[in-house]
Amino acid sequence: MSQSTLSTNSLTQAAIASARTAATTAASADTSATAASSSSALSSLTSNFNTFLTLLTTQLQNQDPTSPMSSDSFTSELAQFAGVEQQVKTNTNLTQLITAGQSSTLTSAQSLIGDTVSVSGSQFALQNSAATLQFSTTGAEPVAIAITDSSGNVIRTEQVNATKGANTWTWDGTSDDGVAEPDGTYTAALVAQGSGTSTTPLTFGSTAKVTGITRATDGSTQAQFGSATIPLSSVSTITTKSTS
C-alpha cells in the first residue's frame, strides 16, 4: 500500500465532490434542449419566410405606378425570397432524415435485448439490487467510492484497498443508512489516493443486462436495464450474448 498524508475523510470528500459534479453533468445531458433548439430554429426560419413574403406582396401592391420598383431590385428580392424558401425546405428535409436515422438506430439496437453489456461513463445501473463496478489502478492504494441517486444526493460512500491492476467493487444497493435503494440509474465517482495530499479520479465500467431499447425526448437512443436507463452510446462492449 502506498503511503500518504491524505486522511481517509479527505479522500472520501474528494470522491463525493466528484460524484456530485458527475451527477450534475449527467442531469444536464438528459434534457431535451437539443430538440427544442432545433424546433425553435425551424419555427423562426418559417416565420421569417412568411414575413418576407408578406412584405414583398405588400410592397408590390402599394408601389407608385409612375415609379415602379426597378427590375434589379425586384430580382434581388425574389432571389432572397427563393433562398429563404430553400432553407425552410432544407431544414425540413434534414429533420426528416435525422428522424429516419434515429428510427434505424432504434431498430438495430433491439438485437441487444437480453445481452449483458459493459457500460462506460459515470452512470451505471442498479439491477436486481446489485451492481458491479470495474476499475484499474497503477498501484496498491486506497480508493474512495461515492454514489449519488437521480436527484444528486450522495447515498453511499465506501473506501477500499485496491490492488495494482484490475479491481472490482460490488454494491448491494444499500445506502450508508442501511436503506435498500430501488433499482435504477445511479452516478458514481472513484478517487484514488495519490502521493502526498493529491488524489486521482479513476474511470470505471459496469456490466448489466439490456432489457429494452427506447428513444429519449431529445431523439437519442437509450438502453434500458430494468428500471435504469443509460444512453446507448455508453455501451462499450457485449460481454455475454443472449442465446435466446
TrEMBL record:
Gene3D superfamilies: 2.30.30.910, 2.60.40.4070. It comes from the Bacteria. InterPro entries: FlgD, FlgD/Vpr_Ig-like. One of its GO terms (biological process) is bacterial-type flagellum organization. Residues 130-193 form the FlgD/Vpr Ig-like domain. Keywords: Bacterial flagellum biogenesis, Cell projection, Cilium, Flagellum. Pfam families: FlgD (PF03963), FlgD_ig (PF13860). Required for flagellar hook formation. May act as a scaffolding protein. Belongs to the FlgD family. This is Basal-body rod modification protein FlgD. It comes from Endobacter medicaginis.
